[in-house]
Amino acid sequence: MEVSGSAAAPLLDVEQLSKVFDAAGTGRVEALASIDLRIHEGEFVALLGPSGCGKSTLLSILSGLDSPSGGTVRLAGEPVTAPLAQMGFVFQRDLLLEWRTALDNVLMQFTMRGADPRPHRDAALRLLASVGLAGFEDKYPWQLSGGMRQRVAICRALIHEPQVLFMDEPFGAVDALTRERLNSDLSTLCSEPEAKTVLFVTHDIDEAVFLADRVVIMSPRPGRIVAEQAIGLPKPRRPEMRGHDEFLHEVARSRELLLDHGVLRD
Ligand SMILES: Nc1ncnc2c1ncn2[C@@H]1O[C@H](COP(=O)(O)OP(=O)(O)OP(=O)(O)O)[C@@H](O)[C@H]1O
Ligand SMILES: [Mg+2]
Question: Of 64, 192, 225, 263, whose Cβ has the fewest other Cβ atoms within 10 Å?
Answer without folding.
Answer: 192
